[in-house]
Structures are given as C-alpha cells and as structure tokens.
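Quick one: sequence plus nicotinamide-adenine-dinucleotide SMILES, need structure tokens.
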Amino acid sequence: MNELQDKVALITGAASGIGRAAALRFAEEGARLVLADIDEKAGKALAAALPAAVFQRCDVSKHEQCSALVELAEKTYGRLDIAFNNAGISDGPIPPGTLDYPLELWDRVIAINLSSVFYCLRAQVRSMLKTGGGSIVNTASIAGQIAFAGVPGYVAAKHGVVGLTKTVAVEYAAQGIRCNAIAPGFIETAMTKDVLGAEQGRQMMQMAVPAGRAGEAREIADLALWLASDRASYVNGALMAADGGFLAR
Ligand SMILES: NC(=O)c1ccc[n+]([C@@H]2O[C@H](COP(=O)([O-])OP(=O)(O)OC[C@H]3O[C@@H](n4cnc5c(N)ncnc54)[C@H](O)[C@@H]3O)[C@@H](O)[C@H]2O)c1
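Reply:
Sure thing.
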C-alpha cells in the first residue's frame, strides 16, 4: 500500500465522485495531497479526514486559481509530482443539440472542461520541469473518442482534452513528464444520477455497455492511480478507457 509513498499529488474536482475516490485511493497509497474544488464544504471535510491533505477552493475555469494550486503544492510540500485534472461538468440534463445549444452553455462547458485543463497543465508542467518530471492524468471521457448526439460542448471539450494530453506528452517526454488521459464510461456519480437514476436511462446504459452495469468511481480512481504511478513509466500520450467495453462495440 505504498504505490505513491511521499509523492505530492494535486487533484481537481476532488470533492465528489471520481475525484473524491481518487483522493481516497491516492492517500491509501501514501500520497500527500492538494485537493481542489468549488465545493468548499465537502472538499474541506475530505481533506480533514485524510492523513496528509490540504484543500483549496478553486474554480478551474480561472487560470490564476489553477496556478495558485501548484503554488500551494510547492509551498506546502516543496514540489509537485502528480496531477489529476479531473474537475468537470455535464451540459445539462436535457441535451439541447447543436442548433439549439445556448452560447453561454458552450462557453461554460468549454471553460470548465477544456480551458481548465490547459491552465492546469501549464502551471503543473512548469513546476515539474524544476524537479525533473512528473505524471499528469487528465479526465476525458468516452465522449473524447466518439460523439454523442445533443451534447456538442461536452464532446468538443473532451476531444480537446485528449488533444492537449497528446501535445504535452510529445512536448515534455524528454524532460521526464508523462501525460495521459482516461475515458470513463457511465460511472455512478452525482454527474450521472439523473440519467442512471431514471429507469429508462439505466436500461439504455445496461443495453449499451457490454458489462451490463455502470462503473464505480473507485474503478476509475484505480486507473488514474496506475497511470500516475511509476508502474506506468512507459505509458505516455495514451487515452485509456474504463467503460465496461462500451467503446469496443
Ligand atoms: N460520471 C461519469 O459517468 C463520467 C463519464 C466520463 C467522464 N466523466 C468525467 O469525470 C470527471 C469527474 O466527474 P464525476 O462523474 O466525478 O462528477 P461529480 O459531479 O461527482 O464531480 C465533479 C466535481 O467537479 C467539481 N467542479 C465542477 N465545476 C468545477 C469548477 N469550475 N472548478 C472546480 N471544481 C469544479 C464539482 O464540484 C464536483 O466535486 C469530469 O471531468 C467528468 O466529465 C464522468
């Protein structure tokens, strides 16, 4: 249980779902954590329950707040080894489709799901270059590899996350930085509770996913943990799915 012993890891969207599960798994493996989220109450409570964690309220759509997270890691622990850029939002319970997609929704979804990753990556890579490298994992989605009708903002943002991941992977591999993306399928979290909580949505998911079930946040956290760890030392620029076989169909 010391996969990440003494590593310093930053996690965004840490207050809920996949980010929260990752915080718990990374801590179990000995990491020292900087946790970030807009949900201050849940984030603070989580940090207080872990052996070595600080929480900072952060809106990842603001570049200066993303930089401040890295500064906090350096100030608190002296370095940054791992970053899990995971915060994100869906584009709403009723997908409006491309022609009716509100411009404000487009701006919001792109800012929180894509620009945020760009802002975080820049600050994180700068920090990791000073200490000889690190491992970055970005949360994309199955919607970063294929399209779903009705959610153009989310699909575009997640495809963009995959592109940014590959760019950083090729730019900084020689300096010891690995950058990979994960593609969760249908995972039981707050984000999917409306869809998976409805009988029709759950039946559709069960038919579409070869495993016949939704994933658990911990199953995604374990993939992020492996990619973050030195065991994945030759994995760089990859998009790895944890989707119960959905993309294989
Ligand atoms: N649940 C799924 O089925 C699924 C599938 C594919 C990808 N994802 C991705 O996984 C990531 C985590 O989602 P989740 O399912 O755990 O959902 P979640 O809603 O449980 O967690 C998302 C977290 O991000 C935080 N957040 C939202 N906006 C933020 C902002 N501007 N700044 C900082 N934090 C912010 C929320 O407060 C929340 O704690 C997202 O990027 C999502 O797109 C989820």
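The chain has a mean pLDDT of 97. Strands lie at 8-12, 32-37, 53-57, 82-85, 134-139, 177-184, 187-188, 215-216, 239-242.
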